[in-house]
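Task card 7
Instruction: Convert sequence to structure tokens.
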Amino acid sequence: MAREKKAQVMDSLEAIFTRCSVGILTDYRGLATAELNSLRRKLREAGIDYKVVKNTLARLAAKRVGWDKMAGSFEGPVAVAFGYGEISEPAKVLMGYIKGSKSTLGIKGGFLGDRLLTPAEVETLSALPAREVLLGQVMAGIQGPIVALASVLAAPIRGMMGVLQARMKQLEGR
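Output:
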């Protein structure tokens, strides 16, 4: 590869590394071209880039971005699924594809920001609900005790109202 072409690839990878929120490293050995194209199509529909990277250039780009820990992850044949929005989306699409097609695609790990992910953590990430659902669950968790406290504090007043209404009916009945 010509020096200029290598510089362009490194600049491109550097830009992707700084822009992406999550990356999942995969071992694509054993995948037929049709399978790889099918996987790329599914990932593209979800807004995820899938690139086969040259390890040396990926290591250099990672070091230029300041991700020295991640540079060691690029060993053997590696393709990376780069996610830009929802952090669990690339993991969900990849794990869904592996389970749905009984593919030989292997998950090697990943990165979330500057934190490295193991294959088990990538699988856990794929099981997470969407961000909106998690926020709803957190809000319900926060709101639950407040509603319970308001109910407990209002109980004596409700009891007093019940007694007063019963007494009013009793006096009206005379």
